[in-house]
């Protein structure tokens, strides 16, 4: 078991291949674990002091020593004395992942690893990959935004991509459980913060890129540069890249430029590259149709053809399917097996997820409005979802959404503009306000709505007046959901966007239980009783 594992310090440092000098007399020290959090240190561990964005681990070296750590890795500038062997390196953050991977004998080397990066579509891609791998006879392990799961076990995810030590522990546990293929979401934050150091991938998938996390990355160029690292620095020697192309239409030129840079980089690194797209690329979707029942498309790849029928909804999900088909091709699966595997995925938590009243599993929406919950929290993602629902020709498209606090403020008016342009009735509400006043966040969204010259009126009035388009500001999210669903009628579509699978709302320092799906189901139950 992982907790009984021990390694000689000299062997651990050699396996990590880092420029850390260790005196000969210290190399025989037995190490029973690696930690970067002094609270998690137990006797015999190697403590790695990492200078984070808000907390500097060097401040807690003495705490780690008091808890019995056997040795410490610190930055070159650390000048204090230490009661246990102290080794120094330029970048302890970089070293942490490699040391953790070396301690667990690099589990990534004994499984097929698929890394997914992109602004949107990562989580859906992991669910599709999971189904495809199972259909092909493999044993999948999944690491992503919703959960970590393998072999019938499932654990909630704290981060899209776990911290380095936790990540290596999870990979080692998956390997021990017989997992053959791991599909993991690799966020731009994880790449910037070096969480995936010590992990190398057989396949890297790029789903798309649009504005997100600019509060952290500063610019689109900086954001893309982090995602690019997955292809430039973390592919195995024989690893392959899979790139989902845009349509090549006006407005997607920037997206094509990013894809072009990735393709050129893969070629420089002598890695194979599979491009996928709607009518473009090595793997193409042709003759496709979309409706409320899903997607039907002809998939063409290297002369092979297969008609794919998927219950997932919309063009953006066809792109997700294409990316995963590309991954399956890179793994050596044949096209029919790939398509049959992904066709079995009926839905993904919080990703255009249909909400039904209790006890109703097959309602066609004839008596009540159709209600969907989606995670879309970027302008591009929200536009994709709204265009998908618009294509279903609802009587009215009613949208409830907000933006998170302490995050990229620049996207707020952009999302307001998108929603105002594509919705019939728009209810702006609170998301995860964190430390910001919700009304201030909502006002910044409203600035974009005003540019579209959408009328402002009470939500109840807008919903009662069937022909009236407009928006309202409703601070309490539960109340906004109530107004939307209780005021909607048969033939309408209600989208509750921004939080998706999340079952909490962050207000200040409090993390309160809140689930859009539960709120929607409760209101649908009330609406059904009133019908």
Protein architecture, described:
The chain is an alpha/beta fold and 531 residues long. The chain folds into three domains: 2-100, MurE/MurF, N-terminal domain (Udp-n-acetylmuramoylalanyl-d-glutamate--2,6- Diaminopimelate Ligase, Chain: A, domain 1, 3-Layer(aba) Sandwich); 107-342, UDP-N-acetylmuramoyl-L-alanine:D-glutamate ligase (3-Layer(aba) Sandwich), CATH 3.40.1190; 353-530, Mur ligase, C-terminal domain (Protein-Tyrosine Phosphatase, Chain A, Alpha-Beta Complex). The protein is 35% helix and 23% strand. The protein has 17 helices and 25 strands. It has an eleven-stranded mixed sheet, with helices on both faces. Helix 2 links the parallel strand 4 and strand 5 (71-75). The N and C termini lie far apart (57 Å). Residues 249-253 have low confidence and may be disordered.
List its traits:
single chain; 531 residues; alpha/beta; Udp-n-acetylmuramoylalanyl-d-glutamate--2,6- Diaminopimelate Ligase, Chain: A, domain 1; UDP-N-acetylmuramoyl-L-alanine:D-glutamate ligase; Protein-Tyrosine Phosphatase, Chain A; 11-stranded mixed sheet; 6-stranded mixed sheet; 17 helices; 25 strands
């Amino acid at each position: 078991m992982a907790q009984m594992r021990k390694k000689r310090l000299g062997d651990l440092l050699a396996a990590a291949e880092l420029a850390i000098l260790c005196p000969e007399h210290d190399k025989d020290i037995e190490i029973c674990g690696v930690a970067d959090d002094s609270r998690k240190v137990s006797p015999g561990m190697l403590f790695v002091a990492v200078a984070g964005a808000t907390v500097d681990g060097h401040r807690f070296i003495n705490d780690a020593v008091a808890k019995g750590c056997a040795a410490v890795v610190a930055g070159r500038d650390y000048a204090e004395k230490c009661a246990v062997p102290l080794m120094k390196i330029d970048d302890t953050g970089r070293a942490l992942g490699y040391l953790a991977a070396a301690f667990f004998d690099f589990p990534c080397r004994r499984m097929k690893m698929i890394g997914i990066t992109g602004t949107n579509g990562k989580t859906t891609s992991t669910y599709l990959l999971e189904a495809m791998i199972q259909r092909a006879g493999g044993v999948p392990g999944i690491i992503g935004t919703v959960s970590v799961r393998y072999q019938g076990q499932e654990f909630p995810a704290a981060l899209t991509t776990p911290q380095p030590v936790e990540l290596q522990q999870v990979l080692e546990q998956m390997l021990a459980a017989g997992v053959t293929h791991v599909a993991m979401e690799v966020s731009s934050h994880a790449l910037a913060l070096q969480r995936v150091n010590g992990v190398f991938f057989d396949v890297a998938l790029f789903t798309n890129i649009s504005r997100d996390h600019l509060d952290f990355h500063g610019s689109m160029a900086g954001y893309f540069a982090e995602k690019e690292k997955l292809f430039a620095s973390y592919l195995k020697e024989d690893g392959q890249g899979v790139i989902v192309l845009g349509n090549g239409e006006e407005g997607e030129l920037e997206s094509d430029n990013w894809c072009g840079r990735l393709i050129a980089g893969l070629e420089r690194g002598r890695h194979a590259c599979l491009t996928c797209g709607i009518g473009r690329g090595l793997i193409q979707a042709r003759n496709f149709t979309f409706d409320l029942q899903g997607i039907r498309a002809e998939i063409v790849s290297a002369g092979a053809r297969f008609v794919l029928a998927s219950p997932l909804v919309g063009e953006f999900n066809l792109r997700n399917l294409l990316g995963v088909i590309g991954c399956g091709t890179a793994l050596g699966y044949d096209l029919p097996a790939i398509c049959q595997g992904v066709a079995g995925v009926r839905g993904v938590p919080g990703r255009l997820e249909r909400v039904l009243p209790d006890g109703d599993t097959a309602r066609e929406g004839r008596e009540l409005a159709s209600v969907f919950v989606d995670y879309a929290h970027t302008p591009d993602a929200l536009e994709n979802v709204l265009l998908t629902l618009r294509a279903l020709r609802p009587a009215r498209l009613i949208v409830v959404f907000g933006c998170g606090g302490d995050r990229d403020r620049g996207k707020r008016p952009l999302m307001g503009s998108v929603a105002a342009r594509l919705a019939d009735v728009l209810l702006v509400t609170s998301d995860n306000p964190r430390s910001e006043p919700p009304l201030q966040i909502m006002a910044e969204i409203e600035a974009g709505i005003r540019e579209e010259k959408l009328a402002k009126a009470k939500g109840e009035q807008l919903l009662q007046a069937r022909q009236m388009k407009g928006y309202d500001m409703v601070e309490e999210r539960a109340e906004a959901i109530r107004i939307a669903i209780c005021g909607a009628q048969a033939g309408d579509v209600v989208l509750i966007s921004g939080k998706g699978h999340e079952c909490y709302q962050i207000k200040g320092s409090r993390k309160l239980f809140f689930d859009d799906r539960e709120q929607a189901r409760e209101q649908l139950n009330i609406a059904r009783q009133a019908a």
